[in-house]
Design a protein that fits this description.
With about 290 residues, the chain is of the alpha+beta class. It has two domains: about 5-125 and about 275-285, Aminopeptidase (3-Layer(aba) Sandwich), CATH 3.40.630; about 125-270, Aminopeptidase (3-Layer(aba) Sandwich). Helix content is about 35%, strand content about 30%. The chain contains nine helices and 14 strands. The protein has helices spanning about 15-25, 70-85, 105-115, 130, 150-165, 170-185, 230-245, 260-265, 280-285, and strands at about 5-10, 10-15, 40, 45-50, 55-60, 95-100, 115-120, 120-130, 140-145, 190-195, 200-205, 215-220, 250-255, 270-280. The strands form two sheets. Strands 3, 4, 5, 6, 7, 8, 9, 10, 11, 12, 13 and 14 form a twelve-stranded mixed beta sheet that branches. Strands 1-2 form a two-stranded antiparallel sheet. The longest helix is centred in the middle third of the chain and has 17 residues, at about 170-185. The chain is globular.
Amino acid sequence: MTVCERKGRGMTEPDPAILLEAYDSQLRRDAEVPSALSTTALGPLLLATYLGGRGFITYRDLSSASGPATEESVRGLVAAAVEHYGAMPEILKVEWKTRGHDHAPGLHEALLAAGFEAQESESVMIGDAALLALELEVPEGVTIRQVHDEADVRAMVLMQGEVFGDDEAETDAMYEEIIHRLRTADDMEMWVAEEAGEMVSAGRLEPVEGTDFAGIWGGATRPEHRGRGIYRALTAARARSAIAQDKRWINSDSTEFSRPILERSGLVKVSTTTPYVWKSAKSTTAT
C-alpha cells in the first residue's frame, strides 16, 4: 500500500488527508510560480510578478518563526503585501490565493479591509492519473491534439477567454504570459478539442518539476458542446501525457462545471481555494 492510499470495503482508495498533506508539501509556494518574472519573500509569503502587470501571492502557511498566525500578524502581512505591490507602478492587479483548510485567523476580513474582493471558490481536486487516462471515444468529427505554434495558442486562449467571460485586457495578458512561458521553459502543454475547424474545448497540462504531480488547468468547453464527453476525453489525453512523464497524481482547481466530471473519475476534493483580487488605482482609472 502506498503512502497515499488506504484500504476499505475491499478496495484501495485515496486517503484525502494524506493527499492534502502531499498537496501542501509539494504544490504550494515556489511550485506555484514557475513562470513568474520575479519573486520576493515576505515572511511566509511569496510575492510574484508576471507580465501584464499581474501580481500573485502564495504561501505554504501563515505561521512565522515566532509562532502560529494570529489576527494581528495576518493583518500585518496583508498590509505589507499591498504596500509592496503599491510601490510597483507596473502592477495593476494582484491575486491572493487562499485555501479553505489553512489556519488563517482574520484573513478574510483583513483582505476585504485592504481592498481585495473575493472571487468564486473552487474545489481542490487530486487523484491518480491512471483514473483519468482512459481511452475514450469522442463524438464523431471531434479531434483532440496538442498545439504548439503561437497562432493556435492565441486561438485557444481567445476561446477560453470567451467561455470564462474575460475581457480583452485579461485575455491579452493571459496570452502574453503563456507565450512567455512556452518560449522560456519546456514545462507546459496546451491541448484542444476541435470540431469542424473550431476549437470547442481546451486546457493545459503543467507537470510540476521535482514532484509526483501534474496539474490540469484552464479547462474550458463552449456551452453548446458540454455534456458530450469532450472535456472528459480532453482530460484523459492530458492524464496519459502526465503518466508518460512519470507523474502519478493529477491536481486541479475545479469549477462546479468540471468538479463532478473529475469526481466521477475518482478524484477527491481535499480542500477549497478562493482567490481575492486587489486592483491598483491605475487599473481602476483605466477601466
